[in-house]
């Protein structure tokens, strides 16, 4: 940018607008200047109820003093050490906490900076593991059609959501081919009470199609978030997937970027079926949005193979395991433990579920309320009986999000491509009963506006 010299009175063309490049060039984003609990405030003085915790991330709400104090204390102690030169007390402590909370032999943690990097690391780690075991052909990582694992090229290759996977041509592999566990729109045309988890068996079909000897790992979210609008698999799905992986000696990667660290009422959603993945990804809620940080928890049996082989795991990034971020994440876990946050998730989650179900009774367009803990989704349909979607041109999910915003409520548009057909409601895990009521009242008002605006068939 040319800096105006003295006497140059040409007005800077951007002086009144923004230099920040934002995802949608034609949208005027509100500019936030502060947050408190589940609320955000913009520079125009408007208050927003953060009903989706941003992108299911700000799990402890905004402006938490305990976290800010820990941040300041760590920053003035030591903020950065480089992973190839030192370990550090904060990262050691965070790894210990996570591995002690995690199931089975997930006894090692590698730190990166985003969910996408966690996916990339898991891809590299899986391929590395098979090389160490003398099977270098095992390089494929299979994923599901309705899934999202990140925006970097490897993570996109294992993500199946067409709308999130623009055509980057030969840079992407076609690894996401398994039909989703999507009960409301079952890809096998079944209803939950007449199904034998065909969607889980579909993994075996895909493994056979790619050749088990070429497959390093499979990746799945215990509950699909943004790519499906909260898809809860049928009971037994992950146990079946674990069996299939064991039979073919394929690693199972659980992407708990959204579900991990309490969002669904347990520390890890994969624990719901008692399975132990070989690698487990964490991001978003691990830092509750207070710093960019992510983790890959790695099974000890993988580390043992590498220890007996080359002895070195794939690299990380410059900021991997930096003490400042690690201490913030450790304080997030402490906060959850010391304030009975998981109990709150289960109690407030039941209130939210009941309230959403009641709204669905009143609003014919709102169907299939689904979720667990404080992660809920529902779909928008033109016709309940046939489950027919609104015409894409109406941008129904976008319209409802806008109507919510008019009432000061932020919710998250999600669902199947090409256009979102679902809404995610996932407030911070510290919401009170009164705040759940406030969220539901705002959503109810927005649904009334939405129906009035979009009602004509
Ligand atoms: N995995 C899942 C399940 C996600 O929802 C996301 C982000 N929405 C990612 C991975 C990628 O995380 P990030 O945006 O931090 O790179």
From TrEMBL:
Pfam families: Aminotran_3. The keyword Chloroplast does not apply. GO terms for molecular function: transaminase activity. CDD domains: OAT_like (cd00610). Keywords: Aminotransferase, Pyridoxal phosphate, Transferase. InterPro entries: Aminotrans_3, Aminotrans_3_PPA_site, PyrdxlP-dep_Trfase, PyrdxlP-dep_Trfase_major, PyrdxlP-dep_Trfase_small. Coiled coil: none annotated. Its cofactor is pyridoxal 5'-phosphate. The keyword Transferase applies. Belongs to the class-III pyridoxal-phosphate-dependent aminotransferase family. This is Adenosylmethionine-8-amino-7-oxononanoate aminotransferase. It comes from Bradyrhizobium elkanii.
């Amino acid at each position: 940018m040319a800096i105006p010299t003295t006497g140059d009175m040409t007005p800077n063309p951007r002086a009144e607008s923004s230099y920040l490049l934002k995802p949608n060039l034609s949208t005027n984003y509100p500019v936030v200047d502060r947050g408190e609990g589940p609320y955000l405030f913009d520079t125009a003085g408007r208050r927003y109820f953060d009903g989706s915790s941003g992108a299911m991330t700000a799990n402890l709400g905004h402006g938490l003093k305990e976290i800010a104090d820990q941040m300041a204390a760590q920053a003035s102690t030591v903020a950065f050490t480089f992973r190839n030169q030192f370990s550090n007390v904060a990262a050691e402590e965070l790894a210990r906490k996570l591995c002690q909370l995690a199931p089975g032999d997930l006894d090692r943690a590698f730190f990166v900076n985003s969910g996408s990097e966690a996916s990339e690391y898991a891809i590299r780690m899986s391929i590395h593991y098979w090389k160490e075991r003398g099977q270098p052909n095992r390089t494929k990582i299979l994923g599901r059609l309705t899934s999202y694992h990140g925006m970097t090229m490897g993570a996109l290759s294992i993500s199946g959501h067409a709308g999130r996977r623009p055509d980057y041509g030969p840079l992407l592999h076609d690894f996401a081919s398994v039909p989703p566990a999507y009960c409301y729109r079952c890809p096998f045309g079944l209803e939950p009470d007449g199904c034998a988890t065909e969607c889980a068996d579909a993994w075996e079909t895909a493994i056979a199609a790619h050749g088990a000897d070429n497959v390093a790992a499979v990746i799945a979210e215990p509950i699909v978030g943004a790519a499906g609008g909260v898809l809860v698999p049928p009971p037994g799905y992950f146990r079946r997937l674990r069996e299939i992986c064991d039979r073919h000696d394929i690693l199972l990667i659980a992407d708990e970027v959204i579900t991990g660290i309490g969002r669904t009422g347990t520390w890890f959603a994969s624990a719901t079926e008692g399975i132990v993945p070989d690698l487990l990804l964490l991001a978003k809620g691990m830092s509750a949005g207070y710093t960019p940080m992510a983790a890959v928890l790695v099974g000890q049996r993988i580390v043992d193979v590498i220890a007996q082989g080359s002895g070195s795991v794939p690299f990380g990034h410059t900021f991997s395991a930096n003490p400042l971020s690690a201490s913030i994440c450790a304080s997030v876990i402490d906060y959850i433990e010391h304030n009975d946050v998981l109990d709150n998730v289960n109690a407030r989650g039941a209130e939210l579920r009941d309230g959403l179900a009641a709204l669905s009774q009143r609003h014919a367009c709102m169907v299939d309320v689904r979720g667990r803990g404080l992660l809920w989704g529902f779909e928008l349909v033109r016709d309940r009986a046939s489950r027919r979607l609104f015409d894409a041109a109406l941008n129904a999910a976008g319209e409802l999000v806008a109507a919510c915003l008019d009432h000061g409520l932020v919710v998250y548009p999600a669902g199947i491509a090409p256009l979102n057909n679902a809404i995610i409601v996932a407030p911070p895990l510290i919401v009170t009963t009164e705040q759940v009521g406030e969220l539901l009242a705002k959503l109810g008002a927005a649904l009334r506006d939405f129906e009035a605006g979009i009602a004509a068939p």
